[in-house]
Fold these 3 entries.
Entry 1:
Amino acid sequence: MKIRETKAFVTASASAIAVVAAMTLATPAFAAEPAAPAADDAQGGIVVTARKRGEDILKVPVTVTAMTSEALEQRGIVSMQDVASATPGVNINNSSSGHADRSFQQVVLRGFTPSTTLATTTSLFIDGTPVASPSAFTAISNPERVEVLKGPQSAYFGRNTFAGAINVVNKNPSSTWTGTLTGMVGTHDNWRLSGSVEGPIIGDVLTFRITGDKFSKSGSWINANGGQTLGDQASVTATALIVYKPSPAFTLKVFGMRGEDNDGPAAQARLYATSVYSNGGVPSTTTGTQIVQGQSNCSFTGYSNGSGTNGTSVTNPYICGITPSLINPVSMNVTTTDAVRSFLNQSANRIVSPNESVQGYGLRRITHHAHATADYKITSDLTASVLAGYNREVWSTFIDLDSTNLNSITQSATGTVYTGGYDFPYLIERKTLDWSVEGRLSYAHGPIHAMAGVSFLDARQYSGGGGNVATLSSATLIAGGKSENKTTGIFFGLTYDITSQFSASFEGRYQIDALGAYARASGQTIAASTFIPAGTYAPGALLTSATYRNFTPRAILNYQITPRLMVYASWAKGVNPAQFNTSILSQSATVQAAAAAAGGVLAVQPEKLTNWELGIKGKALDGRLRYTAAAYYSQWRNEINAVTIIAAVPVTPTTPTGYSFVTASANAGSVDLYGVEGEFALKVNDLITIDGAAAINASRILDYRAPTISQLTGVFNFRGKEMKNTSKYSATMGITFGGEVAGLTDSKWFWRTDWIYKSGVWSNEANVVRTPDLHLFNMRAGITKGNVSLEVFANNLFNNHTYNSISDNYTFPTGLAYYSAVLVGLPELRTLGIQAKVKF
């Protein structure tokens, strides 16, 4: 962390803490109860913080899925991918940028698929503090619970909660010395070692908890070119939490974590529409040896410019319907040579410094997060709270851009000779820095619950990368300039209990987003005046800026029909921040003109959402059955669509393929989303517990413009189509057997089996090709005696091979004018293992 950045965070934290300390008091902490429903009781079950205050999950009029620490442990959930799998209505998209790894992990909630690789519609929070990316969840060891909040959450959680929010809640340390040590080993070289220690520093006044976790596994797939495994993952994380509570009125919590991921090449494959030959991959010529077999089962009449006018009609073979099985070997060029090491260890034109960079094919990510929260109970009715947070995340991934071993290709269609065969190594890197601060007052007296506060977030991003089929050098890299978003929010919430059963709530946030885009650290020359005045801009100079103001309200009515049954209705607005297409500015005049002609603009407007929701929550059978259900209807307007512009350019060392790729964005879409969701938990008896959930998340595109898809398919009217990268139907079902071990004191056992279902996801909005439906079965069983437990598990019990992600892509080196392949992510195959845990 740089000194200036550290000072900014410390100053913000100190100021926030000083404000609260000057007042002197705190809100009480809430602890989640076990996941399995117990007999009806006064506590009412799991407590969540969906409205920044502790509320029974069956009383809060918000659609929330909460997984307690017990539920997470029983299901073996340790990552955001696991959370998504276990939650109907949630998908993870990790292949929208030409590679299926852990770098771009977008959370897709209720079908709100982000249109670009860096866009976000659902954000992650730790103790209510925003974090940089969903990957940070792997750094939280055994949290108190994970809350998945569905629907717009702008009023309380702010920016990037367009579709919802995911909040990870830490456990508070106890004032008694305790600890845990967990070890796991499994197939595919799968192992994990984690531990935690907590206890008093000064009695009940000052307590702490520290955790550490190290995880590693080999991939499930073998690279036919070299024999190494693909999909290797390794992570090491550490966290520390200190709680200072000098009186019942005041509580201060300080949390910090560091995580690092070091992964090997991704487990992915291309399904090619046409065959590739050693004469340069020209599909219409078969004079060379076939390297890759095409799997086309359909063709389209597309248009060369994607507009349908003034373009050339072309016939494009492609893949339609359900994605076929692999017929070509999973094979790619991922050998880390001396040339690769030299390339990754040079610092010119880089975003990530070499000492933090990946050192070969694969991914390296380093995450730092810190936050402090302070609560002061001014009176019995009034509480002041302040929180401040800081995030720094850097990652770099080095990939084989063509995802295939094409060493047999010796010549391209343009006559360029590839010494030693065709290969396209490519580096992608990103750095994110942000800090935030929030202060609020909460009031509760009689029928009134009120809250008001202010927040500020300063988020900075840097992106860059590049590669070459010829000699790798710093000249092939582009280090983008800073993109900054300063967001100021004023928010409030008011709930009034009109009667003992009927309540009304009105919440809102007034938000100001100030966006700025800056020149690269080396300075920047703008070749054309298509978007901003041409000329040379000094290092770090402001290229363009814009300010957007929005108000996002939410109104809720809820009626407690009986003490065990509640219904609610809500109406809410959501806003997703605007974006800049800064990558366009670094392109040539020809490419900028092509981008503008394809609808690319420098600044796109914020996306808007209106959401209506009806819900029911309750319990029955003396509290042994708990259930929730909700139906929603959302209008997504001003949707930002990603447009990949492929412009023909002269063949040069930096553009050896004769094409330049530019991803631009535009407000060119409108879609309605609607669905129903529900979940239940039933304690049948002392031996059996059953829980399940299901969701139908439907979407209907009203208007959409995507030149690259129209180029391929000839489809220009997308009305009635469904959103990509999201499962329309999803469900989970789990059954747990458990109880005391007969004849063995202080012991218990359990056996749990989970079924996870996700319907296939489309690769694009034309709904041409999708993945097969997923049916996944996991099993865990264990026994506990005193402070020692032993478990066995089987993940993907029946070795399901269903692809876990999909995106349209290209055929290298010559099928680059139109989509001509599908990139799929390969799943982790069956993993068996054993885990032991000791508490002390």
Note: The radius of gyration is 27 Å.
Entry 2:
Amino acid sequence: MTPKHSRYTALRQNPELLKKILRGIEKEGLRVDNQGVLARTPHPGALGSALTNPRITTDYSESLLEMITGTHTTVAALLEELDDTHRFVAQQLGQELIWNQSMPAHLPAEADIPIAWYGTSNTGMLKHVYRRGLAERYGKTMQCIAGVHYNFSLPDEIWERFGVRGSSVEDRRSKGYLALIRNFTRYSWLLMYLFGASPAVSSTFMHGARQSLQSLDADTLYLPYATSLRMSDFGYQNKAQSELQLCYNDIETFLARMYNAVTKPWPAYEAIGTHRNGEWIQLNTHVLQIENEYYSTIRPKRTTGRCERPVTALAERGVQYIEVRCLDIDPDSPIGISPQTSYFMDAFLLFCATEESPFFPQDGTCRHSRGNFGLVVKEGRKPGLQLIRSDDAADSHQSVGLADWGLELIERILPYAEALDAAHGGQNYVHAVEAQRPKLSDSEQTPSAELLEALRADGISLHDYTLQQSQRHRDALRARPLNAAMQHEMIQMAAQSVQEQAHLEQSDREDFDTYVARYHAALKRP
């Protein structure tokens, strides 16, 4: 199904542009002890400062590691860096290990889940207080869910080759990425079906609230056809955010709605207040404390400086790249993502960027696309499942079988895999796309189905199964120590980060209250 439009032709005629695509990964993973219980120890000193180490930090909890790669022009280089970081971390964790599943291990009581600490600098305290606010708003348990974020950018020249109209390079780039995001929103249910790997959860995570979940054993709850409970309403529920509908038709409307969310008070958060017993407990009482609080499957992104707000950076310099946030940790991979998944992601995102992407109707919402996504994460493997395919240009929709639509999308993505292979050599991209066909013909071959079958076959709980898997991954990583040069580089990076944190703490010249006020004042109306 070779695309006939000029954009695809431009890709095939300019393979050098495809070699300039950049991808990066942020991979989260809980630190646990040898029994699979959340580690409540401080961030290991050997990993450096969580505030300033560019490759190893923490997310919500002090126990939630986040390993970050730089940007790479090839999948091989990307995963090599992620693998190096995992090998280094595994060597430093002593008796602890990384939990290799998106849904959390056995967690202690809410009060005992440690919030990430970044030192006493104003920058570090801002990150810490923001996380205190997340605990107040959503609870700590939900914040311990982990995933893989896939960052992706295209060279600026590509938007001009695509004929994207705009007053500047930044304008064309932003329009191109928003078109990508609209298509991603339409088709991201496919990623959850193909790669979702969290159909079950430990009963302790639900705090006794079973809802519609079924019991697989005394410790494991699941949904029989689920693909990713992490991305379902079991993983995240919040009324304030549920009423926030961001628009991806144009950057101006997107930024205006985001600005409104980070400046509009929310009654329940006003009732909490910003201080308790003289200490900060949240940065403000708005719908969102800061832009990053918005939980979405994909985000338009722009790197920011110290004390710079994302909305302001996007308004002034446009979208720089996109961040895909819906990938589950791959339980079978020691680094949480396989090469095949990464190759597929590149082809899928290139498809989303290149294909026609009509505006969403009316106010920019995408009700049917959100509905498809929500249905697939909870019932994606249900025989005969029907989704709603919208024609946004005609403002019409029709019912279509998931398997039929999925196979059609594979055919449409395949030419982009071929274009990437033509640019890079080999057949990694085509093989990665072709490998997804059997999953659509037989749902038992999806990761979510295979996980449930493994639990049943072994007669084992999700917790014990994941603990055994995580131990095997740790042992495999430790069995491949870094070479002397890389080991030295990682140690030096950790040591330097400690020095950088100390410098920040020593150089602050204003109190935290003033810093927070300045941070909020840095937000400019788009």
Note: The chain has one domain: 18-361+459-521.
Entry 3:
Amino acid sequence: MRQSSFFAPTLRDIPADAEIKSHQLLLKAGFIRQNASGVYSYMPLGKKVLQKVEQIVREEMDEVGGQELLMPAIQPAELWQETGRWEIYGPELMRLKDRHERNFALGATHEELITSLVRDEIKTYKRLPVLLYQIQTKYRDEKRPRFGLLRGREFIMKDAYSFHGDHETLDEMYKLMYDTYTKVFTRCGLNFRPVVADSGAIGGKDTHEFMALSEVGEDTIAYSTESDFAANIEMAQVADVYDKSSEEAQPLEKVQTDEAKTIEDVAKKLNVQKDKVIKSLLFSVDEEYVLVLVRGDHEVNDVKVKHFFEATNVELADDETVLEKLQGPVGNIGPIGVENVKIVADYAVKYIVNGVCGANEAGIHYKNVNPERDFVSIEYTDLRFIQEGDPSPDGKGTIVFAEGIEVGQVFKLGTRYSETMGAGFLDENGKNQPMIMGCYGIGVSRTVAAVVEQHHDENGIVWPKELAPYGVHLLVLNPKKEEQHELGESLYKQLKEASYDVLFDDRKERPGVKFADADLFGIPLRVVVGKKADEGIVEVKLRKTGETFEVHVSELTELLKKQWAELS
């Protein structure tokens, strides 16, 4: 491609709302342009990178027996109503009506639609398992689109779905997809970790996220210093390994705490450490009220509460409800004497000796609280967020945190959709069974942004070779000089014949502009035709390392072949 006619409009100034490097560089280098909040056009350079990611995904999916199809972006509301997600998915689902007032949704995800297709076409165990996938635009009405391609309202995704007649083949497919995603993201040049995760609105139980490590990631990963344990902070288990104080239990006593309601204020008022104070929070769990207890230096993990009760909705009760149910205001509530509300506590609470909790009276707390003596009808489980320095749940090392960008996720859906939508099959005994499903997603456009976050320097993008829009960037510094012009044209033809994908900068621009654009675009290999053109000598520069070589044109293709093979 000749750069003189190439549509790659670069920017001198970075837009003020571009907060992170990937957003800044993809805009500045002309890979993308914003059309509305969270909605982008992919310019020719950006489209080529997208196609590279898509090609890697297709190759790896096809290798394991995936079959590509394409489903519509617009979906009938009736399908979502069959599973109940029309009501519960929330405002992120973009809904619309046609001219006949029929309800539709723009596809945020395709579980309902793929299930409807398979239930109408597969009726026997003999045609299972099957793995189907698509690469398509998805739509979610994000409340606050930000970070460019990392959180948009329109984005490109690969979503795959598998259908099984038994859990054994689902387990095998899940492992296969886990390994396949590892290959995909390795080929994309990402530094990533697979982590245990929450399935969210999609449903299902077993799931892993693939997280690209990045300081701008919106998710926190908890991982072990000495093993391969890694989990999203929402799902990281906390080991029940606490030391109990040997101090003697004291008599329970009510004390005046006045306006002290926060953990910090109560601890200061009573001259105790925060880990002696019991934090009590009232939640609505599928419209049933539950009092959740954690230690004062810990935070309730509502995802764990949701999973413990196998609930759909978990919400913190408002102040009025707290007062009605517990007869005390927020900041003064506790489990002692409570009979009309279910109580659960984090493991750490049962090890507290002579602690503090609310007394369900304004301005009053209990001190010398000993859970094993003073609490009744209470169940203990893991309900808190893990913290840095905690023992790793697998018993190896301690926990440290890192930020990550979710680029993929694999789910075991089970029969969540097949049962509600009637997607069944006849087994070997002629008995109807619900299909068992898996779901596997990759954020294609998000992967592009994650790669830029990890692969850039102060001058621009540094693409891994498998994603680079072009393999070679050929620059003629002064095309007005006949020897440079002729050599540039000759090399352009020679490199294309050698099967290199070449961007040829034949523009009548200053050398400084050409070098700056080349750095910005991040193409791995640069060939510069300059002052030694009359000698048949050019310069080769590696974008990643900055290393340069002077080489005669007769040896150029051999050098490029060698350097390309060594690139990552």
Note: The longest helix spans residues 167-187.
